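User: I'm writing a tutorial on reading structure tokens. Could you give me a worked example: one chain, its sequence, then its tokens, then a sentence or two explaining what the tokens reveal?
Assistant: Sure. Here is the example chain.
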Amino acid sequence: MSGFDTDLFVIGGGSGGVRAARIAAGYGARVMIAEEYRLGGTCVIRGCVPKKLYVYASRFHDDFADAAGYGWTLPEKPVFDWSRLVAAKEAEISRLSGLYRQTLDKAGVQIVETRAEVTGPNEVKLVSSDRQVRARYILVAPGASPTYETRIPGLEYAISSNELFDLKQFPSRLLIVGGGYIAVEFASVFARLGAQVHLALRADNVLRGFDGDMRNGVRDALGHAGVKFHFGDLPARIEKVSGGLRVEMTAGEALLVDEVMVATGRLPHTRGLGLETAGVAMDKVGAVKVDGYSRTNVPSIYAVGDVTNRLNLTPVAIREGHAFADTVFGGKDIRVDHSNVATAVFTTPELGTVGLSEEQAREKFDIVDIYSAGFRPMKATLSGSPERTLMKIVVDGASDRVLGVHILGHEAGEMAQLLGIAVKMGATKADFDATMAVHPTAAEELVTMRTRSARHEKAR
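And here are its predicted structure tokens:
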């Protein structure tokens, strides 16, 4: 390794970068990792973890309401304290960030708290000191950042989900722009915490790309929670006034809100990273182009996680980082399979999904069988809640293989994780049918659905 200051230099201390650094160091590599903000990345600091904590907080709203049906009497109306939630969240993510640091220290990874820029195929500059580091391999893992699709007057008054976590005052009137999972999750959370929530999006439904029945179910649940939709209607101008923010919508309505959160997408965080200097190829949105081993067109430079814009999920970044280290430093040959990855949308009720949607299956397979169920969960029978659980199994009608499973209901994310194993292994509908049910559970419906609700056959 003569001539190199380190065997591996990792740019970005998020989930993918930290995993790669730790595993590479375990193989005996000398590793440096640069993070200009806080170790933990998007997931720990401003994404999955704080979001899930806020989801938990919001669900007490329903729990308090449901308790009366089970014999509980609350002495007074529950009172929510936003500042206490923010402080508790901050304490937890600080704890987790500290654990990331401990893990890296224990592995012998050198942490540099600065922005790092690529200056050549084997060179990185530490911006805070202008020090040049020569590395045998460079791993690019800085994640992605919120982006605004359009520029409008007053956009500087809007915030992203990054800032929404730490607002000094609770936004009693909130406009969320976007229809993806970040937008609907925050709409669900803040409506339950007591805000008047408006959701504005370009499309005519939420969660583009998900199964159609599940999209409708999430939309209806949000509406029941009090979210007001503005389909095909976006902000045209934002103006700061004495009562908050006045937002002129393209359909002509004017909204007065406390905050406008824009959640219209995220772009790979490659601007100003110096990748062009090293000749690294990127696509039109700035995503780093990589092969199945996360290798760029420059042999010494690799990239994992959201910066590659393949499948932007934390567990995927972790798997990519681990596979990179195993392959490059562990002498193994590991490619990451990005198919049939289970995921969840943490609205209330939540959406858990793995595999193909009905719409996707119809495009790819000649015969598609659908098994579906909609029912009132047992908890709602005494509470009087109008909540419904929806389940759908998508099957290849020719081979009987399960192509996808979609659940909208309590703990759907937990079910999707377990279903991911079965779908990944190629389970058939007959395998589901042969599995004994666990009673009484909502999940038992997945192995007791026997009647086909729909069949689609392509014209021949």
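What the tokens reveal: The CA atoms of residues 14 and 41 lie 4 Å apart. The mean pLDDT is 96.
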